[in-house]
Sequence to fold (195 residues):
Amino acid sequence: MNLPLPTLSLPMKSSLNLCLALACTLLASLARADDAPASLAPLLGSIAARLDIAEQVALSKWDSHKAVEDRPREQQVIAAASALANGHGLDETTVGQFFAAQIEANKLVQYARLSTWHLQGQAPDTPRQDLAGQIRPQLDRLQERLLQQLADFSPSRTDPRCPQWLARANHTGDMAPLRQLAMIRATAELCVFKG
Fold:
């Protein structure tokens, strides 16, 4: 049995068309965010690997009662990375800003971990790594990889979709809140806005 379809009024048709247009725009926007360049994933992976080391740094700071803030060391890391910028086709300012963001993200994790351990009255009873002998060499090895990956991603930094790529990558459902916040901080200056 064929029933007649209801007739839609003009305002109802306009509302339906508007909803369809908005849905299509949203889907198109999401699709564009998914077409991130292949060079982004390895860079984000190395940024995450650098953040993984933050807990060991925090444990070292807990045991030694040293402050998280270490401006001379931070300046040393930034200067060393900046000195290698030209060899990777990057400018020193870009590299300096990028590594400053990595350091700030790493400190964010350290401060959060230390705060939790102070609340609990103790740090985890896990094996410790030596800051100067083990942790810093790991960070130094990551520096070279990060420089190359930043250089690989650089042509995409001015793409208008860059913020969407990072937002999508940094808002995955399985990311812990602290990791998400640290990744957002570490990648906050990856995109370059041209006005």
Q: What stands out?
A: Residues 46 and 146 are 6 Å apart (CA to CA).
